[in-house]
Automatic annotation (TrEMBL):
<dbReference type="Pfam" id="PF22359">
    <property type="entry name" value="Big-like"/>
</dbReference>
<keyword id="KW-0732">Signal</keyword>
<dbReference type="InterPro" id="IPR008964">
    <property type="entry name" value="Invasin/intimin_cell_adhesion"/>
</dbReference>
<feature type="region of interest" description="Disordered">
    <location>
        <begin position="614"/>
        <end position="641"/>
    </location>
</feature>
<feature type="domain" description="BIG2">
    <location>
        <begin position="525"/>
        <end position="606"/>
    </location>
</feature>
<protein>
    <recommendedName>
        <fullName>BIG2 domain-containing protein</fullName>
    </recommendedName>
</protein>
<feature type="domain" description="BIG2">
    <location>
        <begin position="436"/>
        <end position="517"/>
    </location>
</feature>
<dbReference type="InterPro" id="IPR054604">
    <property type="entry name" value="SbsC_Big-like"/>
</dbReference>
<feature type="signal peptide">
    <location>
        <begin position="1"/>
        <end position="34"/>
    </location>
</feature>
<dbReference type="InterPro" id="IPR011047">
    <property type="entry name" value="Quinoprotein_ADH-like_sf"/>
</dbReference>
<dbReference type="InterPro" id="IPR003343">
    <property type="entry name" value="Big_2"/>
</dbReference>
Length: 641
């Protein structure tokens, strides 16, 4: 089974044989953005990073690989890949998904295999490609397996584990494709996507949502070519994130293998919470293999998108900053003079962001692979390059930023003639201060917030020469009364109950405090409060989550369900809990009202009887006909009334 990086290597070898020309595109496509530029610094003079530790895993199996790693709340890491386990009955190797949890120093705490252990199962060759910590403290993993019920094809595989690695559930699904990106939704469900291919030599980009138990909620497939069924046209998403309004931002590519009739293009697509498209942006460059590979939410609420393209036999890496409506604010790029770069992760850093991936030179079968980190400032300008040589490196997985400013990387390596999962911890590259620290201080003298509200705090080091530097990420932060207000390692303070307390910051032997006051009722806040819909519809005995949203006067949108009070107009028709979950009780029309401080918003709620497919009508008990008296109706207040 090929990884995204291996697929990239195979694609790049064919790109040099294709004609490269820039074509003027439609209004929703681009050949260059206003404000785009190329960075002056050279990425081809990399530094060698300091390795804090490096370790391999899966030694009890015949083979193990590493495809992804994520940081955990306890300071450790969780990684996924696959293993080969030799059966004692027939000495045949069985490929299973593999999950391993390690502490901050790389010491293994537990490991788990993921597969479907059923005698009549027709799904084999499990491999995990992505992992994320979940809101309940566990872990969600995604990957693929081979379905051999008919003609063999790959299908998504998803699994949920608790915090100790115990498997809660594992499922495979009916759509063809891989899983390369997973996100958790506000309702504790999950949305996944990935590379897609099928026997018809064409594939549409897919998204799938499952609930917290792994049950399929919906599958959406989207097509971005002008021709409905083009041969050799593959379209897929590489990465996802949940947007502040509860929707989805997906990035990916269109790839043409047979002709130039449907040229290569990168995709940036905004979808609602149901997977329906709101807007699309395409950058079309025939024969370039252009792809949007990774997306990240910027600190100001906009989006950062990283990708690559190849023209004139040279790799160009680009980063876009786009607004929430899809407008491109800026584009920055740099050229890799030799070799190619496969982007696996776009990570935020203290002073900008980093592109983590794999740098490859040579030709098949003599590829030379290295870990690669490109560093950029907040404006997208190239600032540095780190490249790590690992003997026997077979491939790089995704990586992540660490709390101490370093990087955690995953991959697979040859060790004693066997393939092994590899994790590498790199230290952060920091400069010594130009002068000795004189004092530390909070940027603001005090902090006021309401219960449930979350605000940032900034700790600064003041040097003898008068300069100040942000040290929030490296200072030790504690709350003197965590029942009133809590503080996380990134400096975000959350109001929990009415009262006053202090946040204490410690750094290099210096200490400073920040007075915090938490009040009960927020006043009228400048901005717009609204729900994610003006009209809700659900069936009897079904649930539907309502998202309460607040857009402040700067344009930043936040989900505020935790600070919102929900009430229902007629509780005989529907009910709503404190989290905003609607429950259908009986057929009828009512309304739900949300109150956030002094803001209110009302939406209609329609409850209907469950739909019964025609083929199942004879399986249902006979129902009396519906009359007007069966439906209670209440005229809901319209938004703004």
């Amino acid at each position: 089974m090929t990884t995204p990086f291996e697929r990239g290597e195979m694609r790049m070898s064919s790109l040099t044989k294709r004609f490269a020309a820039v074509m003027l595109c439609s209004a929703l496509s681009w050949t260059g953005w206003a404000g785009s530029s190329s960075a002056a610094a050279s990425p081809d003079q990399p530094l060698t990073p300091k390795v804090e530790w490096s370790s391999t895993y899966g030694h009890s199996f015949a083979r193990s690989t590493g495809n992804a790693v994520a940081a955990t709340s306890d300071g450790g890491y969780v990684a996924v890949g696959d293993i080969d386990e030799v059966r004692s009955s027939d000495s045949e190797a069985v490929q299973k998904g593999y999950v391993v949890k390690v502490d901050e120093n790389g010491n293994q705490q537990w490991e788990q295999t993921v597969w479907i252990d059923e005698e009549d199962s027709y799904v084999y060759d499990f491999s995990l490609k992505e992992v994320i910590p979940t809101q309940d403290g566990g872990y969600f993993v995604g990957g693929s397996a081979t379905d051999r019920s008919s003609r063999p094809h790959n299908v998504p595989v998803l699994a949920k584990l608790d915090d100790q690695g115990n498997l809660e559930w594992v499922n495979h699904y009916r759509v063809s494709g891989y899983v390369d990106s997973v996100v958790e939704t506000p309702d504790h469900g999950f949305v996944v996507t990935g590379y897609n291919i099928n026997p018809s030599a064409a594939a549409w980009a897919y998204l799938m949502k499952v609930d917290e138990h792994g049950n399929e909620v919906w599958i959406k497939q989207h097509h971005f070519s002008d021709v409905e069924y083009p041969m050799g046209d593959f379209q897929y998403f590489n990465d996802l994130l949940i947007t502040p309004d509860g929707g989805i931002l997906a990035v990916g590519q269109m790839e043409e293998f047979i002709s130039e009739q449907h040229p290569d293009a990168s995709l940036i697509v905004k979808l609602d919470s149901e997977g329906e498209i709101e807007w699309t942006r395409k950058q079309t460059l025939p024969g370039s293999g252009i792809s949007a590979n990774a997306v990240q939410l910027a600190p100001d609420g906009t989006y950062l998108v990283g990708g690559s393209k190849r023209l004139d036999d040279k790799m160009t890496v680009f980063v876009l900053n786009i607004a929430t409506n899809g407008e491109v604010l800026w584009e920055k790029s740099f050229t890799v003079d030799e070799g190619s770069f496969a982007l696996g992760e776009l990570a935020s850093t203290s002073d900008g962001f980093a592109l983590l991936g794999q740098y490859t030179t040579g030709n098949y079968p003599n590829y030379h692979r290295q870990f690669q980190v490109y560093q950029l400032d907040a404006a997208g300008e190239f600032t540095g390059s780190l490249r790590l040589e690992v003997p026997g490196l077979l491939g790089s997985g995704t990586g992540t930023m660490t709390d101490d400013g370093g990087f955690m990387l995953s991959g697979k390596v040859t060790e004693n003639n066997k393939q092994r999962m590899l994790l590498v911890k790199l230290s952060g590259q920091t400069e010594e201060p130009s002068a000795e620290v004189k004092e530390i201080r909070f940027a603001n003298p005090e902090l006021t917030l309401q219960i449930g509200e979350r605000k940032p705090s900034v700790v600064q080091a003041v040097y003898a020469d008068g300069n100040a530097a942000d040290i929030t990420g490296t200072a030790t932060l504690t709350s003197l009364n965590p029942e009133i207000a809590s503080v996380d390692p990134d400096g975000f303070v959350t109001g929990l109950s009415v009262g006053t307390t202090e946040i204490v910051a410690e750094f290099g032997g210096y200490t400073t405090t920040l007075p915090v006051t938490v009040s009960e009722t927020p006043g009228q806040t400048a901005g717009r409060f609204y729900l994610d819909s003006e009209d809700y519809s659900l069936e009897i005995d079904s649930e539907l989550d309502v998202l309460a949203l607040f857009t402040d006067d700067t344009g930043h949108t936040s989900i505020v369900n935790g600070e919102t009070r929900f009430t229902i107009g007629n509780p005989d028709i529907a009910q709503v809990d404190e989290r905003g979950y609607l429950i259908g009780i009986k057929p009828g029309l009512t309304s739900v009202t949300a109150t956030y401080g002094e803001h209110t918003f009302t939406a209609s709620v329609l409850v209907v009887k469950p739909y019964i497919p025609p083929g199942q009508l004879d399986q249902q008990p006979e129902q009396p006909p519906v009359t007007e008296s069966d439906i209670e109706s209440e005229a809901p207040e319209l938004p703004g009334q």
